[in-house]
Design a protein that fits this description.
Chain lengths: 480, 480
């Protein structure tokens, strides 16, 4: 009996360039012994960024609760006779603060990390997330704008939250989601998979990837003209792939626009710590007491944590009663969807807890934490600056926007006839080992050419490869 | 402007009883201070099952690679002067084998657990999984039936694999998946969400939940009569919710049937260690060299590990060229789908590695590992036996099948007029604190009534509550 040859057409036509042909070619080159540098993805620890010691100390204790007593005994014996431990320093011992936090965590969760949790994630972690959001946004007890732990879901990275939200929002093939162009391809992939319509809006590159109302109106008019019902709009701030930090005025335009059209805002704020001096304005703070449905996303993968592999993240909902028109309890449907997956992984949940409760001043983990955080963010800023400087020596290459996130997204204004940014990135890889992603992988504005580079390789490696890139570039664009 | 009020109808109508109204009521009772016993879900560590020490030792070291040297120094100093460590015993130290395994792991993966991995999961772990499968099934180098690491995907628990497979398989609303009735509601939920058709087949309860060819033929005829194109069939062995272990002859019927109709087999084998003396026959071994597409699933959540919260699991594909008719590269589509989520969480991946490579004889972690494994499995068997014995004292209650997995699924043959198994389970909860799931939550055969109980509570607690259940039962069924 002959079977249908078809599989789900939405999944079959879905695209995801960040792990597409260029990184696949890089893997082949690396297997052949060539030096390749993975700048195609924001994966800091793969390029040598060290994890935050405090987080790892606590995770390690949570994995092995039986080691708490042993660590305390070790600390006691070490204090009495440090010389016996040849080469081990006091800093190599687990901090008292990590011991106290692990102890408290396990008091709240006696079964430890091995059990399924509530589908939404552990209640005390969701409360800690709510407190973090309130503190970040300067929300006090009495102004009625506090985050609600019952509207927070802990997820396997922010990606899982995005897929869940979009899967639920898309009710039929004419439902649409507005996304910035260029965008992180998770969004186009999720919309494609859910069988909905992607409606692009185009931040103004030459003005530093900012937004004006006319940009949003133009996208909405286009959607309406083709019969698409827009239900939500995605904003990524700081942005991926452009790295640009959205100015407060642009963010305000988004909120006004969403209110006027009854849209939910999906605010991807996973790079909220990657600012390098710029100001971050959360969408929660801009929405304030207005009845605008908001999903805001955060993650343990970015910032200075870089714990990508752990798949820790959360989404906070505001005004869920208004989502999708208000006749459905959106939060209940999200909960049901989460229940089928049982719960987000507990290591990721624990990391979210640590992210929202950094070691306070005065404890023995604080100074080291602050130093490690500073070193990582400072080094990222330095590396972004090195790359931007190299851009100045590349013909016909321009990079806009205030540096944020982990990416630069320069425009290639000069390419040999018939060559695309994909060709350029593939040649760049073959010639220098630098693995980047072509702008077309992010759905760039028609007629433009770009690339995205994650500014993560060690500075010494950048200093070595940037001159090679400059030479490659100026040869390539001149057809040499 | 008015928005559509609709959300995705498939997700809105999806059901998931394991975390439905009865467990929700249990949470309310618990919040009110009542003793409740969570037998609604296979979540062993929540009910006091201890994690395997060896696994936790290695995870703890992988989280804190900087502690490897410290642990070695500690071991050295301890050996010289154990008395200084007041109360700490040599067994409280990390085993030498755990240190060696962590060292080797980090040599293969110098960036550690914080980086995204390949979308399929770390290559050396997939190789270890392939070796495990071959060893389990007695496959040798030269018979051409070895598992292929490139056809193994590491996933966030087996649940994620199931959703991914079903999402891809369902191409249109007349595509169907055969599932056993009763079934684990993940399957009905995944099929519903993907917008496909569920085709139930009915293992013979009175014959111990076994299968004969006529049962499968009947289901296929029913599907064809209503225009459903069956693409795959799910087998859960040992079964959830019935706990029954499928005899070899029944499994052979499935393989012959799948071959004849060109179906893929989705073999949920996550309870393959939960046998209590019964024989486990893998579908990979039964498929052998026949060209039958097979997905086999395994997990770190069950067995004697019980690491549910970690979300570790894998799926192995066989004969993917024949899946969905052979014109599509199913494995490539699965890879693309995995890429969008970036990778499965690394703690779960590491646990899969530890599961497929238990400590070998002769190392210092072996004896303790074997003892802990024995104690857990023996205790599970003992608890299942206690409950089955209590069943003998309950009027009109019968339990079929060889005990396996973590569940018993007795049939309630005597209920007061108008009462359903849902009513029974809710009353059982209110009266004794025992939280079970009604059989209707698993889609039982029309006209029958059941409940599922996970045999996980500590034996002392069972010995206390079982007499209460017997008394409740005999009162309830007699309308007292």
């Amino acid at each position: 009996m002959a079977l249908s040859t078809r599989v789900n057409k939405n999944i079959a036509r879905m695209e995801y360039a960040v792990r597409g042909p260029i990184p696949q070619r890089a893997a082949e080159l690396a297997a052949g012994g060539l030096r390749t540098i993975a700048c195609n993805i924001g994966n800091p620890q793969a390029l040598g960024q060290k994890p935050i010691t405090y987080c790892r100390e606590v995770l390690s204790l949570l994995d092995a609760p039986f080691s708490l007593d042993r660590e305390r005994a070790l600390r006691r014996v070490f204090t009495l006779q440090p010389a016996a431990f040849e080469g081990i320093k006091i800093d190599d011992l687990v901090s008292e603060h990590a011991l106290a936090v692990a102890d408290e965590f396990l008091t709240r969760l006696p079964s430890g990390l091995g059990a399924y949790t509530e589908s939404k994630g552990l209640a005390f972690i969701r409360q800690a997330v709510a407190d973090f959001i309130d503190k970040r946004d300067g929300v006090t007890e009495d102004n009625g704008l506090r985050a609600d732990p019952e509207l927070i879901f802990l997820t396997n990275g922010a990606s899982e939250a995005v897929r869940s939200i979009i899967d639920i929002l898309i009710a039929d093939p004419t439902d649409g989601i507005m996304i910035p162009i260029p965008q992180y391809p998770l969004y186009s992939a999720a919309i494609c998979r859910a069988g909905g319509e992607q409606v692009g809006y185009y931040p103004d590159e030459d003005a530093g990837w900012t937004l004006e109302r006319s940009i949003l109106d133009e996208a909405m008019a286009r959607a309406m003209a083709r019969g698409v019902k827009v239900k939500a709009m995605v904003v990524i701030n700081p942005a991926n792939p452009t790295g640009a930090v959205l100015p407060r005025e642009s963010a305000r335009e988004v909120v006004d626009f969403a209110e006027e059209y009854g849209l939910a805002i999906i605010a991807d704020e996973v790079y909220q710590e990657n600012l390098y001096g710029a100001e971050f304005v959360s969408f929660a703070s801009l929405v304030g007491d207005r009845d605008i449905p908001l999903f805001s996303l955060h993650s343990t993968s970015k910032g200075f944590y870089g714990e990508c592999g752990r798949r820790g993240g959360y989404v906070e909902l505001r005004n869920p009663a208004n989502i999708a028109g208000g006749n459905t309890n959106f939060c209940d449907i999200m909960l049901k969807q989460a229940s089928v997956s049982l719960c987000a992984n507990t290591t990721g949940q624990a990391l979210v807890y640590l992210m929202v409760r950094p070691p306070p001043e005065g404890c023995d983990a604080h100074d080291r934490f602050v130093r490690e955080r500073y070193d990582i963010l400072d080094s990222l800023h330095h590396k972004a600056t090195l790359i931007r400087r190299a851009f100045d020596e590349m013909e016909g290459l321009k990079c806009f926007g205030r540096t944020g996130a982990l990416y630069l997204f320069p425009r290639l204004e000069k390419l040999p006839p018939g060559k695309t940014d994909f060709d350029y990135c593939m040649s760049l890889l073959e010639n220098t080992g630098l693995c980047t992603v072509n702008g077309s992988g992010f759905g760039q504005k028609s007629g433009t050419q770009h690339l995205r580079i994650a500014f993560l390789p060690p500075a010494e490696l950048l200093e070595q490869v940037l001159p090679e890139w400059i030479a490659f570039h100026n040869d390539y664009v001149n057809g040499r």
